Amino acid sequence: MDVYTLPDLRNWAAVTASESPPIRLSVFGDPVAHSRSPQMHNPALRAAGIPAAYARIRILPDDLPEALRLLPERDFIGTNITIPHKAAALPLMDDVDPQARRAGGVNTVVIEGRKLLGFSTDGPGLVRAIRADFGFDLRDLRVLILGAGGGAGRAIAVQCAIEGSARLVLVNRTFERAQALAAELAPDFRETRVTGPLMRLEAIPWTDAALARQLPHIDLVINATPLGMDSPELRRLSPIPASLLRPNHLIYDTVYTSGRTPLLLAAEEAGARAANGLSMLLHQGALSFELWFSRPAPLEIMRAALLKS
Ligand SMILES: NC(=O)c1ccc[n+]([C@@H]2O[C@H](COP(=O)([O-])OP(=O)(O)OC[C@H]3O[C@@H](n4cnc5c(N)ncnc54)[C@H](OP(=O)(O)O)[C@@H]3O)[C@@H](O)[C@H]2O)c1
């Protein structure tokens, strides 16, 4: 079946009787049909010789508590959590990793006995993606995040704080959300790391003038908005025009629904290095695999499977 539901989970033994190997991992989301996680995890499970399969389960927001509580009874190893459940899952865990608590959401659940343990691999996945795509560590970079008010933007900003990034500039359509996040992260950015005319941590309004003032003092620009996603109204929109980018910028688009997003095209026009969100998806998935099985993930198999999907 392509997508399971809560009624299926309630009646799991009968509904999945013909599944071999048994489904013991999943991704919860709403919608979830677009998730590429099964295409990445099932080949990894096969390659590692683990007799378990990974499936999509569409869970409506009100049903999340029941769905999570059913997992230990259904002999699940764990689950991923995606839009819109990451924050709502946090208080439903028996124990939460401190990094996930700071990120404000859970994207990976590990089941230990009857307990649900919550983790967030989005931020650590981005660290690995930036290292793999650009050869830099997040802590050495001056970072500007577009969409710092959302779940992914927040997870990335918190990761920059944990890593001690050289600078962090938060940009968001709803400015107050970027300001609130900057206030929360301020204690992590007290120490001076770079000299220059601008503050080490700032929230700025989303205007061309404010961006133009910041960008000469930025190494890495990250898009954490859905602009550029594969929907009729978003897919042509770049969050930032090519005219504001410079060849020395590193551009990372968390959007991965199309290979060359509008932001990647803008980066190309500006002569800047750029990568799309496929590597973040890959590395957050590999980190989930490592949490579930306490062993390295078969990264190249997962990468090849993702590219094929
Ligand atoms: N590559 C990966 O592994 C990975 C992982 C997670 C997420 N992502 C990507 O990250 C993006 C955001 O996901 P999310 O879960 O963080 O979503 P979210 O929680 O709904 O946040 C959306 C963010 O984008 C902003 N935004 C939404 N529409 C906008 C528009 N038309 N113009 C400007 N800003 C807009 C929102 O600003 P307001 O605060 O003003 O609403 C908010 O900051 C998606 O594209 C998703 O695919 C990728």
Walk me through what this model shows.
The model has no long low-confidence stretch (mean pLDDT 95). The protein is built from 13 helices and 13 strands. The strands form 2 sheets. The chain has a 7-stranded mixed β-sheet, sandwiched between helices. Strands 10-9-8-11-12-13 form a 6-stranded parallel β-sheet, with helices on both faces. By secondary structure, it is α/β, with parallel strands linked by helices. Strand 12, helix 11 and strand 13 form a beta-alpha-beta unit. The chain has 2 domains: 118 residues, Leucine Dehydrogenase, chain A, domain 1 (Rossmann fold), CATH 3.40.50; 157 residues, Rossmann fold (3-Layer(aba) Sandwich), CATH 3.40.50.720. The radius of gyration is 20 Å and the shape is globular. The chain binds NADP nicotinamide-adenine-dinucleotide phosphate (NAP).
User: How many domain regions?
Assistant: 2
Cα-to-Cα separation, first versus last residue:
17 Å
What is the CATH top level name of the largest domain? Alpha Beta
Strand % is 15-25%
The CATH superfamily of the largest domain is: NAD(P)-binding Rossmann-like Domain
Give start-end ranges of low-pLDDT stretches.
Answer: none
Please estimate the helix content: 25-40%
List the helices and strands in order: EHHEHEHEHEHEEHEHEHEHEEHEHH
Mean pLDDT: 95
CATH topology of the largest domain: Rossmann fold
Radius of gyration: 20 Å
Number of β-strand runs:
13
**What is the CATH architecture descriptor of the largest domain?**
3-Layer(aba) Sandwich
Largest beta-sheet details = 7 strands, mixed
Oligomeric state of the chains? single chain
SS class = alpha/beta
Strand adjacency order, main sheet:
1-3-2-4-6-7-5
Distinct compounds present:
NADP nicotinamide-adenine-dinucleotide phosphate
Global outline:
globular
